[in-house]
Design brief:
alpha+beta
Amino acid sequence: MLAAVVVVASVAAALGMVLTWPTGDGPDTGLVDVGVEYVAGQVVESGMESCEGTIEDVLPDGTVPQDVDCLQVTVRTSTGREVQVFATGGTEASDVPPGTRVLVQHYPAAGGDPEVWAWHDVDRTLPLGTFALAFALVTTLVAGLRGLRAIIGLGLAFAVLGAYVLPALVAGQDGLTVALAGSTVIVVVVLYLAHGISLRTTTALVGTLLGLAMVTGLGLLGAHAARLQPVTSEDTFALARALGADGVGVLRGVFLCGVVLAGIGVLNDVTITQASAVWELRAADPSASWRTLTTRGMRIGRDHIASTVYTIAFAYAGASLPLLLLLELYEQPLLITLTGGAFAEEIVRTLAGATGLVLAIPLTTVVAAIAAVGVPPDHSRSGHSH
């Protein structure tokens, strides 16, 4: 029965991907100048210069200063040429000492206009690549082959996002279908790759799929009840215009897709933990009924719920700290600020994911308990890890 649920869900997800697979080129947004070249280089020297003020330098009273301090950076490109560019506001000389690897933009001469060099950003390829390699190494050393398989699954998950989910949303495909199809494929591949094909993994997978269904339903209900609008800031307005005539409709799908994708990771965590806990309880007491296993498993589940709620709350607070700082700056009542467009969207997304997560724990526990009592005790212990 569990296998049938997984097969049906997988076939439906594959069919959904086929029907909503993006074809053709995306919309011509005009957001990127295709003629620009990104050139690597190293900082030779830098110093402060006086520049004319722009709209980016606007003061709290709304005026633009006539002159501002700018950081002029001399960069030696990979071809050996030295060029001078102005760094973005807020960058200081101590941030880009001589030898710092940076990226600059080169606009070739065209139509009688001279070539232009401009600052792009610091080249962070080496430090970020080092961090990623250290993460992969530590995970593999601690978790062994299973950790390596989990990293491979993570790479495949991001491949699905990059090759299917994002292009499909840009192409205007139905956001709900894209979210459910993409997330189902991701959890099926990731769970079986990391934990192996077994009844225990299948139990956790069914619990995860049930949780995703609840998160999706709660997200739809919350968006409808709160009458959320997809355009809540200048950024989302610009994005809606760039996506074409149906940009607002696309952003509605983006919200639903974000709700579903945000729930995948934590759901995977709690369902695997609950399934493993029930199987270990079954191995410790082979005579226990499924009701007994459910009761004992929920004792563990309640502790997991309490800790996971904190995890979700503080993970959101850390990722959205700049947005939360607006609460200190807005001279409005707290309730009005929290129920405003941008904040309301985040609140609905967080509460939908957290509620679906909490409900997934008892569902997974019951499914795992019923499945575990049907397995001989000698086979109830199979390798699994968090």
